[in-house]
């Protein structure tokens, strides 16, 4: 898990988020309303959903986020998290503790830090085509 994920409020612009991604060397930012995650936006979302259509970089990030953020509790096992990432087709999974976001797990984290085949479990589900476009 990467602790303390980078977050923005819903009024942040695409340019602000892209700048954060550049400065922090990250590919995803959580959109938060208070302590509640309301969306996640990735570098790919910015390119595919906004730039490719010529949309203005001053546009609010919420127009391009993936909503309905699925989270898991911090004491969830790596294997269970990987299974759920596969089922939900998620490449990134915010981690909560007492209802507050404390980190984020990516498939890359599973590949680098997990023992066994947790990354393969998650990737198998994510690689299955679906209508769900979570990042």
From TrEMBL:
Q: Which Pfam families match?
A: CBS
CDD domains per UniProt:
CBS_pair_HRP1_like
Cited PROSITE patterns: CBS (PS51371)
Pinpoint the CBS domain residues. 1-57, 64-120
Which superkingdom heads the taxonomic lineage of this protein's source?
Bacteria
Entry keyword Nuclease: no
Known InterPro entries for this protein?
Answer: CBS_dom, CBS_dom_sf, CBS_domain-containing
Could you list this entry's UniProt keywords, alphabetically sorted.
CBS domain, Repeat
* Record PANTHER family: CBS DOMAIN-CONTAINING PROTEIN CBSX2, CHLOROPLASTIC, CBS DOMAIN-CONTAINING PROTEIN YHCV
What is this protein's name?
CBS domain-containing protein
Q: Which organism is it from?
A: Deinococcus aetherius
- Organismal lineage: Bacteria, Thermotogati, Deinococcota, Deinococci, Deinococcales
């Amino acid at each position: 898990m990467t602790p303390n994920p980078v977050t923005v409020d819903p009024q942040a612009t695409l340019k602000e988020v892209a700048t954060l991604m550049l400065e922090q060397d990250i590919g995803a930012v959580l959109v938060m309303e208070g302590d509640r995650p309301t969306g996640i936006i990735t570098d790919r979302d910015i390119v595919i959903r906004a730039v490719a259509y010529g949309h203005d970089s001053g546009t609010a990030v919420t127009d391009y986020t993936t909503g309905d953020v699925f989270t898991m509790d911090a004491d969830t096992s790596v294997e269970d998290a990987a299974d759920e990432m596969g089922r939900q087709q998620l490449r990134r999974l915010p981690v909560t503790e007492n209802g507050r976001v404390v980190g984020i797990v990516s498939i890359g984290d599973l590949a680098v830090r997990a023992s066994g085949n947790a990354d393969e479990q998650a990737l198998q589900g994510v690689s299955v085509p679906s209508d769900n476009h979570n990042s």
